[in-house]
Amino acid sequence: MKLIPSTIRDRKVTMMKGGVVVVTLMLAFGAAASASDPAPAAKDSANHTAQKAKAHHWYQIGEASWYGIRFQGHKTATGEAFDMNALTCAHRSLPLGSWIRVTNLRNHKSIFVRVNDRGPVPEDRVVDLSYAAARAVGIHGLAKVKLEPVRGGDPKLAQELLAQLQIPVLPNAHTGE
C-alpha cells in the first residue's frame, strides 16, 4: 500500500492517517445521528400515551336516592356527623373527601357534592345524596343521574364549582324560591 502525504492543520499526515481520521469522524457523526433518532420517537410515544390517559374521562350513570332526617347527626364513614343540609353524598368506591358533580338526567340540573359516606345499601343505586343535594337537583324520590369526578387542573369544572358557591342552593323557606 502506497501512502500519499497530505497536510492537515499544518501537519503532514499520510492519506492512510487522513483516511482513518475521515472514517473516525464519519462513524462519530453517524453514531451521534443514530443515537439522537430514537429519542424523538420515544418522546412522541410518551406524549401519545399521556394524551390517551388525558382523554380517558370516568363517569357513572345510574339511579340516585337520598337520605335525610332519619340519619341526621349519625356518624358517617369519614367520622363526621351527617348533616342533611350539607352538600354531601354516599358512594361505594370513590375516595372519601373527593368531590363529584351529580347531574339529574331528567332536568339536567347539576350540583357538586363531597363524598363523606359509604353506600347506598341497595345494589341498584349508584349514589345516595344528602337531602340538600337531592333538593338542589330536583330529586324527590329516585332519579337517574350522571356522576363525574372533579379533577384537579380542569378549569371548566372549577369555574362551575365556584359558581355554585355563589348561588343559593336551597329554596327560601318563606318565599319558596
From TrEMBL:
CDD domains: DPBB_RlpA-like
Protein name: Probable endolytic peptidoglycan transglycosylase RlpA
Sequence similarity: Belongs to the RlpA family.
Keywords annotated in UniProt: Cell wall biogenesis/degradation, Lyase, Signal
Single Gene Ontology MF annotation: lytic endotransglycosylase activity
Coiled-coil region: none
Record gene name: rlpA
One Gene Ontology term from the biological process aspect of the record: cell wall organization
Top-rank taxon: Bacteria
Species in which this protein is naturally found: Edaphobacter paludis
PANTHER family: ENDOLYTIC PEPTIDOGLYCAN TRANSGLYCOSYLASE RLPA (PTHR34183), ENDOLYTIC PEPTIDOGLYCAN TRANSGLYCOSYLASE RLPA-RELATED (PTHR34183:SF8)
Main function: Lytic transglycosylase with a strong preference for naked glycan strands that lack stem peptides.
Signal peptide region: 1-35
SUPFAM superfamilies: Barwin-like endoglucanases
EC identifiers of the protein: 4.2.2.-
RlpA-like protein double-psi beta-barrel domain residues: 61-145
